[in-house]
Design goal:
Elements lengths: L4 H4 L9 H7 L10 H11 L12 H7 L4 H15 L3 H35 L3 E6 L2 E6 L8 E4 L8 E13 L1 H4 L4 E3 L17 E2 L4 E13 L5 H5 L12 H34 L6 H18 L4 H18 L2 E3 L3 H6 L4 E4 L11 E7 L2 E5 L10 E3 L5 H17 L4 E5 L2 E5 L2 H12 L4 H7 L2 E5 L7 E8 L2 E8 L1 H6 L1 E5 L3 E3 L2 H16 L3 E10 L8 H4 L3 E10 L4 H12 L3 E5 L4 H11 L7 E4 H5 L3 H7 L3 E5 L3 H13 L4 E5 L5 H6 L2 E5 L5 H6 L2 E3 L4 H43 L15 H12 L1 H6 L23 H25 L4 H22 L14 H19 L1 H7 L6 H31 L4 H4 L10
Helix pairs in contact: 4-6, 5-6, 5-10, 6-11, 6-27, 6-32, 9-10, 9-11, 9-26, 10-27, 11-26, 13-14, 17-20, 19-26, 22-23, 26-29, 27-30, 29-30, 29-33, 30-31, 30-33
């Protein structure tokens, strides 16, 4: 066990040489820690996290439900009522409030658990050496002594001493505030050097922007430099969504209106009683006051924002199970508005399982057998090729490929997998087929330098020691590699003519037309090992070894997803660094490219002005040989056309484009930490089809929130309208009864709220998607939550329910106030349960979309419960209702039926109207006009 971490905080690791650091931490630079030792240190030092998230215990969530001011006032008023002798009603109010609080607690607890699950899914991983193997571990399991592998685009997850660096540059802006990247080295730094001057250290929270290296972890968690700065990080902040903000605004406005109305009702009742000489005692005032507050509790939808959050959080769990991990909740709303998907090719539209299919050396061409990463296969000479003459050159090419790669093949769970880049994995598998021992070759010829790959360079160069000389190997885009090759290896090294270069480029184009991704490989013997590894010094005078062609077939589900996207008016666009012909072959096969579309290269894009690109962007479906900066221009051009754009990316340089896009999508398997940090959505399987599925799920979640919203708000509006009208218009004429007349008792108002806003409303949030969910055009980005279908349902509910309820109550007064109240109460419950069934879909009739089982069970439960409550004398007394007569049942059942039928007729009318004004199918983006109303 190394020296105690608490004391190691005081060690100036930057002032010690590499050997001393490794010795102090008892770490092996080639093998890292053993798993057993890492587990011991994990226990000793704790998790590599900042201040742990403070989880609210369940009892605090329960107590929170009682912090609502109106509920508090209602409970106090009920206590007073009990002391005044109204014990039964007071107890009933207590019971109903308890169940309402319990329901609120269950919703919030479920939402918190969903958010917690989401946060777990977002926990990052890092790459270390354990037991001599390169493995990925959760960042929180990183411990002092771990050998951390640093690569371009990765986040540094612990304070670490650099022990190996190849052009390693790190951006430390998050720690020091300096935006320039810092060149890192392994040399000793002065004892009193400031953090910004410690060039041999890597710090938590910073990002590798160039090169690669190794570092041994010296501090983790709160003992890091970043941990000392962060004094209190309680949790991952979940941004309030636009929908939540709308709900807050709706709730507060409705709350203010309701409070004014209940105050007017209470004042009106007191004035009316006083004007006719009625008695105004404390019990009367408490009764009126309790009713007014109960109406406020029932009518104010305080839970709307919480329910929206919970629905979004629960929905993100479903999305995560389908490989779409949401980092920012607002993106769920934006997904339904997505009109353009700009996607990479390799691994996203294709399977991501590259296989070398063809090799060309010294003018000879060979096919390569075998599939996937299994290192089994052989060369098959094409017509006119002599296998024996080229065998030695292919061995040299295989050697170059192995040394100019970092990927490792591993056999796990009965299949061969790649640890590292998929393209490099295919190259290693090919080399193994040629009899090259990868690990032994890398041991004999160690890497001493590197000019890293980047999207702009499109090549990677490494330098290795071979006996008494240094040799550089490079691989990359043929046009880039051929540009600095002046010789070619045949039976011996000969001059490479311009005609031969042109011939190789034509051959590369032919291979690309067959959907092969082509790489050129070259080597160069260096006179001396250079002190600096820069492209200006190294990358000249290379000897061409040959071309390697590999393919990655399209995913069948991606092809179907492209069709589905186009059918609903979403435009897929391919943006890739591959050759134009390769990109076109895959784009045609997947259906992204049509004959009337355009395809351009990054070089051609450079010649476009911003205005030219904006005018032409809707016709361009394939971009090839592009750099990350081009992605920014493409996103900007689409957005200037008023489109909502989703953009995929995996590299550190893709981060600006991911931020710029309306929906940034990072690759979960191949994406860098920087890309994932900038993204809104992470694809756990790097699959294009998952993006389309996420859009579908986003639409579904938003639809269900709208259903819940429409149902709850129409209930609240109807309650407010009916009770206000009865209190201010009908009731002043009831002085003849000499009673304290209010349309509903407080306990009845609360029960209506519990019965309608409870289980039926929650069940609507779990409704299956409407059949036309993926036949609709994208939702306008700034569409208000009160869409036509929501507004129509609320207005229709008011127009139908309010007159029926008022007339039903007024006609029941001839029998007596208790009977009228009972009829009104039961009509309310029955009509709202009928509308809950209507809200299964806001546009389709119940004949087209049957109520799902949870909604049916919720409605059946509420009906059964109210029947039981009416049968039992004690509960009838508690609710202040009387046994309904036959005429009452006619009113109750008839009103519910009229309400349900009216809403269904409204849906039918608007569907027929919308079908009559549909645009032609070619404008809709799908073939059959009937798909709009399937």
């Amino acid at each position: 066990m190394p020296l105690n971490q608490l004391s190691s905080d005081k060690v100036h690791w930057h002032s010690l040489d590499v050997k001393s650091v490794l010795s102090a931490l008892e770490s092996d630079p080639r093998a890292g820690l053993t798993t057993a030792e890492a587990n011991l240190r994990r226990v000793a030092y704790g998790p590599n996290t900042l201040i742990a998230e403070q989880k609210r215990p369940p009892f605090k969530l329960l107590l929170k439900q009682f912090q609502n001011l109106l509920i508090g006032i209602l409970l106090v008023a009920s206590i007073i009522s009990a002391f005044l002798g109204q014990v039964i009603e007071a107890m009933a109010i207590f019971v109903i409030v308890f169940f309402a609080v319990l329901l609120g607690f269950a919703q919030e607890y479920s939402a918190e658990r969903s958010l917690a699950s989401l946060k777990k899914m977002l926990k990052p991983k890092c790459t270390v050496l354990r037991d001599g193997k390169r493995v990925e571990i959760p960042t929180e399991d990183l411990v002092p002594g771990d050998v951390l592998l640093l690569d371009n685009g990765e986040m540094v997850d612990g304070d670490a001493r650099i022990i190996e660096a190849f052009n390693l540059q790190i951006n430390e802006a998050s720690l020091t505030g300096e935006s320039s990247q810092i060149e890192k080295s392994i040399g000793v730094v002065g004892d009193n050097a400031a953090v910004a001057e410690q060039a041999n250290m890597a710090f938590t929270g910073t990002t590798v922007v160039y090169g690669r290296g190794k570092a041994v972890v010296v501090s983790t968690g709160m003992h890091t430099q970043f941990g000392r700065i962060v004094e209190a990080v309680a949790s991952i902040e979940i941004e309030e969504t636009p929908l939540e903000r709308q709900m807050d605004e709706i709730g507060s406005k409705l709350g203010r209106i309701t409070l004014l109305l209940v105050a007017a009702i209470a004042a009106g009742a007191v004035i009316e009683t006083y004007s006719r000489g009625g008695m105004i005692g404390i019990d009367y005032i408490v009764g009126i006051f309790t009713f007014a507050i109960a109406l406020g509790v029932a009518a104010v939808p305080e839970a709307l924002p919480a329910i929206v959050t919970g629905s979004l959080a629960i929905g993100t769990r479903v999305m995560a199970k389908r490989n779409a991990i949401v980092r920012n909740l607002p993106v769920v709303e934006t997904l339904g508005s997505t009109e353009v998907i700009c996607t990479d090719k390799t691994g996203t539209l294709t399977k991501g399982e590259m296989t070398v299919r063809e090799v060309c050396v010294a003018g000879f061409r060979f096919e390569v057998t075998g599939t996937g990463y299994e290192p089994k296969g052989e060369l098959v000479a094409k017509a006119g090729s002599n296998g024996s003459k080229a065998r030695q050159i292919i061995q040299e090419l295989s050697k170059a490929i192995v040394l100019c790669s970092d990927a490792v093949l591993d056999f796990e769970d009965g299949k061969w997998i790649v640890i590292g880049d998929a393209t490099e994995g295919a190259l290693i598998a090919f080399s193994e087929k040629m009899g090259v021992a990868t690990s032994e070759l890398r041991r004999i010829f160690p890497k001493v330098g590197e000019v890293p790959f980047s999207s702009e360079r499109k090549r990677l160069t490494t330098i290795h020691l071979e006996e008494h000389e240094a040799v550089a190997y490079t691989k990359g885009a043929p046009e880039r590699i051929l540009a600095f090759c002046d010789s070619i290896r045949k039976e011996e090294i000969v001059r490479l003519t311009q005609e031969e270069k042109t011939g190789f480029l034509k051959l590369s184009d032919q291979m690309a037309q067959n959907a092969l991704r082509v790489l050129a490989v070259a080597e160069k013997v260096l006179d001396v090992v250079p002190e600096q590894y820069s492209e200006d010094i190294i990358e000249t005078g290379f000897t061409l070894l040959g071309l390697v062609g590999m393919n990655d077939p399209p995913r069948p589900d991606a092809t179907e997803a492209v069709k589905a996207a186009k059918r609903v008016g979403i435009t897929p666009v391919m943006i890739t660094g591959d050759h134009k012909l390769t990109a076109l072959a895959i784009a045609r096969e997947t259906g992204i490219y049509d004959d009337e579309d355009s395809a351009i290269t990054g070089e051609e894009l450079e010649k476009f002005s911003e205005k030219d690109l904006e005018e032409r962007v809707e016709k361009i479906s394939v971009y090839s040989r592009v750099s990350p900066i081009h992605k920014m221009r493409i996103v900007d051009a689409w957005q200037k056309r008023g489109k909502v754009v989703a953009m995929t990316g995996d590299g550190v340089n893709d981060a600006p484009a991911l931020k710029k896009a309306d929906v940034g999508v990072a690759m979960g398997l191949t994406g860098s930490d920087a890309a994932k940090d900038a993204a809104d959505l992470i694809l756990a399987d790097d699959n294009f089809a998952t993006i389309v599925e996420a859009i579908e799920l986003g639409r579904w979640m938003y639809d269900n929130i709208k259903k819940y919203l429409a149902y709850v708000l129409q209930t609240n509006f109807v309650e407010i309208a009916v009770i206000t009208l009865l209190a201010l218009i009908v009731l002043p004429w009831r002085g003849l009864f000499g009673e304290n007349v209010i349309p509903l008792l407080a306990v009845q108002v609360l029960y209506i709220n519990l019965a309608t806003d409870g289980l039926p409303a929650i069940a609507l949030g779990f409704s299956p998607p409407d059949p036309d969910l993926m036949s609709r055009l994208p939702r306008p980005k700034n569409e208000p939550v009160f869409t036509r279908d929501v507004t129509r349902l609320i207005i229709m509910a008011l127009l139908v329910q309010v007159p029926l309820l008022i007339i039903g109550f007024a006609s029941g007064l001839s029998i007596g106030l208790p009977a009228a109240r009972s009829r009104l109460f039961l009509m309310f419950v029955a009509m709202e349960l009928a509308i809950a069934l209507n809200c299964r879909s806001l546009t389709h009739s119940l004949m087209e979309v049957r109520p799902h089982k949870w909604l049916l069970l919720a409605v059946i439960w509420e009906c059964t419960l109210i029947i039981v409550l009416m049968i039992l004398p004690s509960t009838r007394a508690a609710l202040g209702i009387v046994q309904p007569s036959t005429i009452d049942l006619v009113w109750i059942i008839g009103a519910a039926g009229v309400t349900a039928i009216s809403i269904e007729l409204l849906k039918r009318f608007w569907k027929l109207r919308s079908m009559s004004v549909l645009r032609p199918p070619d404008q809709l983006g799908f073939s059959e006009i009937s798909a709009r109303s399937c």
